[in-house]
User: Fold this.
Amino acid sequence: MANFYEMTAAELARILRAKEATSVEITQSVLERIEAIEGKVRSYVTLDPESAVDMAKEADKILGAGKGRPLTGIPIAVKDNMCVTGKRTTCGSRILGNFKPPYDATVVRLLKDEGMVILGSANMDEFAMGSSTETSYWGTTRNPWNTELIPGGSSGGSAAAVAAGEAIVSLGSDTGGSIRLPAAFCSVSGIKPTYGAVSRYGLVAYASSLDQIGPMAKDAQDVALMLNLICGHDPRDSTSVPREHPDFTDFLDRPVKGMTLGLPTEFFSKLENEDVAGAIADARRVFEALGVKFVELSLPHLDYGIAAYYIIAPSEASSNLARYDGVKYGHRAEEYSGMIDMYCKTRAEGFGPEVKRRIMLGTYALSSGYYDAYYLKAAKVRTLITRDFRKAFESCDAILCPTAPSPPFRIGEKIDDPIQMYLTDVFTIPVNMAGLPGMAVPGGFSKDGLPVGIQLIAPHFQEAVLIQLSAAFQRATDHHLKRPPL
Ligand code: GLN
Assistant:
C-alpha cells in the first residue's frame, strides 16, 4: 500500500471511514514526510506539528462518534495570507513577521468546522506579489520536481507541499494566476473560482477586485470536495455572492461527449514553447477522443491584459497596504524621531523591493491628474476583456489554453527582470480581470521531464463544468498520478 502522504483526500476519507487508519496516523505520516524533505523543498513558513496532532485527535473523536464530514481528519496547508486565530500569519513579509491574528478567515473557520487538520502556513511571494515565491521574506520554496527551479507563485508553498506529499490538499489565493501557475509548475490541480464564489474575509488583501481563494490538490475529485466546503455566501464579505452551488462531486463522472471547447487564436499565436504547445495538442487529442468538439475563437483585447492588470493591481495594493504603518500591529522600526519618521522607517524596513515597486506604481497611477490616463483606462480595458470572454462563451462551454508560457524556470532567472516575471502570467491574468473561474490541470511533462499544465476557463459560476472536464481528462490520462522523485 502507498504511504498515506501520497494519497488523495478522497482515498484517505474512505480509509478513515472504514477505520483502516486514524487521522492521527495519517497526520503523523505527513509530518514524517515533512521532517524528511522540508529542508529541500521549504514549502512552509510556519509549521505547527503539535497543534496538527491535537486537531487530528479531535477529528478522530468526531469520526469515532460517526459524525465525520467528507474532509474530516484530512491534513491541509493554508497559504500564509489567510488568518488563523493565534497563529503567525505573515503574508511572506517582514512587516507582518510577528502578526498573530485574533480571528479566523471564513475559509479557515470552514476547515475547522469540517474537522480538517491544519499543518501550518505555506510560503508565498510577499503579499502575493510574484510568480516564483522568490519575493518571500522567508526565502524561496523549491520545485519538488527539480529543486534548482522555482515552484511558481505566489502560492508556491501551497503547490509544492501538495506535490511533495507535505500536505494532502492546500489553499492558495489567485489575483493574477497565483493558484494556477504554481499548480502547473508543480503538476497539481488548482482552481481559481469565480470572483465572489469564496469568501475573502480574513484573506490579507492584495488587489481586492481580483483576489480569490481556491484549493490545490492532487486531482479533480479532491478539488471538487474542497470547493463543496469553501464555496458559498458570507455576509462578512460584501463581494461574496448569495448563490447556491451544486454538489461538485456530482460532476466527476459525467461524460463530456458533445461539449465544445474554444481555442483562443490570440493565446496560441503567443505560444513559442514547444513543450507547452505539445501539451495543448495532446490535450486536444484526449478531449476529441472523449467526444469533445473544438472551435477557434478570438479574444481581441487579450494583448492589453498584462498592461491593464499592472495598473489595477498595484493601484489597489497601494491603497490596501497603507495600513501597515507600525502603529497597531506588525513590525515597527526601533529607532525614529517623530511619527512620520516612524512610518517611513517601518515601511522601508518592513517591505521588500517588489512590494515597494508596486506601492510606488499604484500611488503614481492613482495620483491626481493621472487617474484618467491610467486607472480609468485600465478599468475600461478590463470591461473589454470581460466582453470578449462573454462573446467567446456563446460558442463554447469552456476554453482550453496553456497555464504558463513555459515549464518552470530556474531560481534567479527572472527575479531581476520584473517585466519577464510579469509576462509569466499572460495566460492567467485575463481570467481574473473578467472574474471567471479557471482551473490548472497537469498536462504532461517537457522533454526534460518538467511539469506542463493546461488551463480550462469557464463562464461565471460554472466551476462544475471545469470539474466535469478535468475529471474526464484525468480518467483518460495519468499525468496527475506521477509524483516527483524527491
Ligand atoms: N504574478 C502576479 C502578480 O505578481 C499574480 C500574483 C497573484 O495572483 N497573487 O501580481
